[in-house]
């Protein structure tokens, strides 16, 4: 982004929030409905120190790559700047695999990721930035070398151990007690803000509920979620059908959007996760431009009811069909188009309680063209998702929008006032998501004009300074 564009955009966004501060304001994130989640594997994120790179081989997709707790701290501002409030991290226990899912010992942290002190530094660093840390906890399919497998007293727990995997009988009361105590002890020892459960196959719902209850007794505000379908009392609801519906709706244009138009407040909203193919893989199969596809999907996900959930690397359109391909080492030296869009859309959502928890009214839903109203007693937005191959128009009556108001486009910065018949005509180009804020009709937007004037004056001043310095250098060189 050049200097002029950056300056104008920054001033206009600042002006927008100043003029609407009475309606849009930062809220204390006291429930998961106010959060947005960024998911990563420690080993694949950033390698800050080589002292714990025991057998790291970044060129081998199946080996440890060297990422560590200190690396997550180093790049935490990248996540913070995009507006995410929760960093979800894969299992951190002693493990045989880079993704942490072949646990060897729940009582030890994986030494390749870092020390106990460094893990606490990570948690504290997140809290200082007003972010939360969520840790994945697998309930089954541990390493066959897990310390439990060598304990004769636990023989009744082990269903089988083959192909490097040890399976535990999750109906066994002693196994349930051991896992519950392990998770509770971890929650007591480390001030984590959430637990993401995985490997739930065979786990009775009552057992999972008991664990959730136990960790919330340690910390009532701790979140409990899963990326598997379950009837347990998790704080969010994961649906494989909903994930596929988002993916299928946005991998190309003009595709059905019926299922995604009915999301609920506790739905996890995503286009992929770290156990699926990357969304980029599907959009590339359609011969579409992945960054545009991702931005359009993000625009919908961050304005619909539900909790946004994004895999690391989505902001750089990371590709991959298999785990080896899709769990790449994060590349931070890339074009920032998607990143800048994430910053903007997440900033709006974080500042607006209405976009996070307000009511929703569906106004239009037809093969990629979605129009819905997000509203509360304090504010109203009209969201237009034009995921079609052509420009779209919709006329909204004053019964929907309101009397004597105007609609201000946040991204395209257009102003919509009622026509002679009282309707509000919204026209939006293809593959764009726009948020129109409904405001009282005020005539000329003085603050907008002032911001534009200041922007251009500053830009001209910048050019004069550059010109003078260049002229002075020429004189000095003579």
UniProtKB/TrEMBL annotation:
Keywords: Hydrolase, Membrane, Metal-binding, Signal, Transmembrane, Transmembrane helix. Pfam families: Alpha-amylase, Alpha-amylase_C_2. The chain crosses the membrane at residues 448-467. GO terms for molecular function: hydrolase activity. SMART domains: Aamy. Residues 1-26 form the signal peptide. InterPro entries: Alpha-amylase-like_C, GH, GH13_cat_dom, Glyco_hydro_b. This is Alpha-amylase family glycosyl hydrolase. It comes from Psychrobacillus mangrovi.
